[in-house]
Amino acid sequence: MPSATDRIEKQIQLNAPLDRVWNALTDSRQFGEWFRVNLEGPFVPGEFCRGQITHPGYEHVTMEVLVGEIKPQTYFSFYWRPYAIDPQVDYSHEQRTLVEFALQPKDGGVLLQVVESGFDQIPAGRRDEAFRMNDKGWAAQLNNNIKAYVEQ
């Protein structure tokens, strides 16, 4: 059974149409606008998608995700290596965490849930910091970035 530090769970009620929220998550160009990453291609299940982070202070980081499942208008997932930001470190031996987005129409908008799991598999030396930074990061991405993007 996973520990309490193995997963981050966040949710937000968005006052936007389902298709707007869905496209903001699964169209890699739109995802990049609110997530602050310049992705090089589309999200395709089973394929990698990568690009440069554009968030100030993290422009040196290349984000790489392995796209998981895409279930239209309800579920999108990818795998990545959380908080892998030091260009001098080879993270390729590390397990990836699973990031899941679930959408549910609610109260004239969309309830968006994000779950990132698998932190217990991250090397102990960086596990706590990766968890803490991603916990703060998902809060900001939901409460500020995607909310502003889809509700504009």
TrEMBL record:
InterPro entries reported for this sequence: ASHA1/2-like_C, START-like_dom_sf
Cross-referenced Pfam families: AHSA1
Chain ranges of the Activator of Hsp90 ATPase homologue 1/2-like C-terminal domain: 15-151
Similarity comment: family membership: Belongs to the AHA1 family.
Descriptive protein name: Activator of Hsp90 ATPase homologue 1/2-like C-terminal domain-containing protein
